[in-house]
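From the methods appendix. Each design record in this collection lists the discretized structure first, followed by the designed amino acid sequence. Records were kept in a plain field format so they could be parsed without special tools. The example shown here is representative of the layout used throughout.

RECORD:
C-ALPHA CELLS (284 positions):
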C-alpha cells in the first residue's frame, strides 16, 4: 500500500528539512514523480515506483538509477545527485529514490539549435566509461510485439522490420547508455541544457540505440524534420552514419505488448510512427 505521507517524512529526514509542499510532475511512465519543497527553501524530486509492470522491478530500477547518478557526479553530464534510496519499499510501500531537483524544464518542440545541443550532450554521455559496466541493454521490441498494427499504411515494412529483428544484430562497441534519452528527459534553462533526468534504464550497449530512441520519439511527438536533423547532428559527432538496425529496433519498440494500451494513442502519432518505421526499413 502506497504511503505518500511516510515517503515525504523520509525525504525530509534525508534533506534535514521537512517537506512543506509537493506537486506531481508531468510524465512519469514508470513512476509517480513528486517535486518537493523543503522548509529551508531547497527542492528535491521523489520517485515512487508505483506503475505496473515496472513496480515489480522497482528495486532494480531505482538501484540502477542511484548507481548511475553516483557515477555521474564527477562527469560533465548534468544529472541530478542522489540523496537517498529505499529500493526495498520499507518506507512507502513501493521502491523510492530521492534526488536533487535540477533547475529547468523540458521543451515540447526543440528548435534546430536545441536539436544540435541534444546531439552534443548525447555524445558526452557516450564518452563516459564507468569502471563497472552497467547491465547489457534490453530490447523493447519484444517478439510478442511483432504484430502488424491495424492502422498502418506500410504493412510490408512492418513485416520486413520483424524479419530484420529476427536476424542477428550488428556488432557494436559497448557504450554507456542513458537508454531513454530524448527531449522529454532533457531540462533547459536560459536556452541551455540544464539537466538530463530519468536514469532507471541505464545500460551498456550500442550508441546508436540511444540516438535511435531520441530520433523516433522526436519523429512521433514532433515531426520527422527534427528527428532527421538530430540523426544528422549525432552522426556528425559520432563520425559514422545511423545504423538502420537500431532505428528499426527502437521504432518497433514503440508498439504495445499484447493486451496493453499503446504508448501513443493519437491517429497523427500512429501515422508518424508508421512513416518513421517505413523510413527506417528502407534505409537498409
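DESIGN:
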Amino acid at each position: 500500500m502506497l504511503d505518500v505521507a511516510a515517503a515525504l517524512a523520509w525525504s525530509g529526514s534525508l534533506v534535514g528539512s521537512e517537506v512543506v509542499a509537493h506537486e506531481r510532475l508531468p510524465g512519469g511512465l514508470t513512476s509517480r514523480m513528486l517535486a518537493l519543497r523543503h522548509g529551508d527553501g531547497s527542492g528535491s524530486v521523489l520517485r515512487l515506483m508505483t506503475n505496473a509492470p515496472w513496480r515489480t522491478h522497482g528495486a532494480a530500477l531505482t538501484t540502477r538509477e542511484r548507481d548511475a547518478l553516483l557515477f555521474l557526479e564527477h562527469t560533465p553530464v548534468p544529472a541530478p545527485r542522489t540523496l537517498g534510496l529505499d529500493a526495498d519499499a520499507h518506507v512507502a510501500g513501493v521502491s523510492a529514490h530521492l534526488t536533487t531537483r535540477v533547475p529547468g524544464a523540458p521543451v515540447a518542440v526543440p528548435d534546430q539549435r536545441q536539436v544540435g545541443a541534444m546531439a552534443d550532450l548525447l555524445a558526452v554521455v557516450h564518452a563516459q566509461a564507468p569502471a563497472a559496466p552497467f547491465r547489457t541493454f534490453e530490447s523493447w521490441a519484444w517478439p510478442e510485439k511483432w504484430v502488424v498494427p491495424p492502422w498502418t499504411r506500410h504493412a510490408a515494412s512492418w513485416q520486413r522490420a520483424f524479419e530484420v529483428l529476427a536476424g542477428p544484430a550488428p556488432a557494436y562497441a559497448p557504450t554507456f547508455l542513458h537508454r531513454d534519452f530524448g527531449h522529454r528527459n532533457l531540462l533547459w534553462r536560459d536556452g541551455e541544457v540544464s539537466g538530463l533526468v530519468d536514469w532507471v534504464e541505464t545500460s551498456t550497449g550500442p550508441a546508436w540505440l540511444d540516438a535511435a530512441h531520441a530520433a523516433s520519439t522526436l519523429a512521433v511527438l514532433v515531426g520527422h524534420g527534427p528527428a532527421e536533423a538530430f540523426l544528422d547532428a549525432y552522426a556528425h559527432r559520432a563520425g559514422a552514419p545511423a545504423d538502420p538496425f537500431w532505428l528499426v529496433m527502437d521504432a518497433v519498440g514503440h508498439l504495445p505488448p499484447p493486451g496493453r494500451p499503446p504508448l501513443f494513442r493519437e491517429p497523427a502519432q500512429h501515422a508518424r510512427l508508421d512513416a518513421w518505421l517505413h523510413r527506417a526499413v528502407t534505409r537498409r
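APPENDIX NOTE: Residues 4-100 form a domain with the Phosphorylase Kinase; domain 1 fold (CATH 3.30.200.20).
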